[in-house]
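A further point concerns the way the authors explain their paired sequence and structure data. An entry of this sort, consisting of the sequence and the corresponding backbone structure tokens, reads as follows:
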Amino acid sequence: MDVSTLKTLNEARRARRAAILATGLDDGESRVLFEGDVPPGELGEHVLKAFRTGNSLAVEAEGRRVFLNVHLPRPRLVVIGAVHISQALAPMARVAGYPLEIIDPRTAFATPERFPDVTLHAEWPETVLAQHPLDGYTAVAAVTHDPKIDDFALKAALDAGCFYVGALGSRRTHAKRVERLAAMGAGEDEIARIRAPIGLNIGAATPAEIAVAVLGEVIAAFRSRGLAGGEGRAS
């Protein structure tokens, strides 16, 4: 790998930008590909799948053998609300490989005792997200039921193009949320990206079951990035 290529990959890693180093196995020629800059044809199909799965592999396309070395930012899960659902979700997300952090200005709830070994921000989302911006490899789940806490984070998630944006609440609650977000400048297409009611429709009732539904929906959203037809498969 030449110095220029290494520099490009390092810059992409620092910026949390996905990249693939495509190297011809017969001629040794290589180039760095980014999401949104995918080549046409059969190679492009392999590249899109590699971006979704994160798996490096050798492929054959247009008569050439190419090795795709995938470099994806690690997805992160930001939960707005130090509630019972969050307590159940934290260990599940850790096992699944989605580092979780919690934002909640209510210091009675956002305590290390309730959330051991979890990155915890007992501050308003406006303060935290100014210091730790969201990005396309972040999932945001708003579960406080409090518009004063949830709404700013949801708008920030839509603005940042987060791969998943979910919010707790009934359809009636969400209808009022839609009005507030529209007043904040969010467009219809942006607001339509919010998963509400949050989580896969598995009939979840307890906080732990809702946490399972949320994590499943986050994983499905991550693995279906770039697909036009809804939820994707991990294969």
In short: Residues 3-71 form one domain. The chain has two domains: 3-71, 76-223. The CA atoms of residues 140 and 165 lie 5 Å apart. The helical segments are 3-14, 41-53, 84-96, 125-131, 147-160, 171-183, 188-191, 207-223.
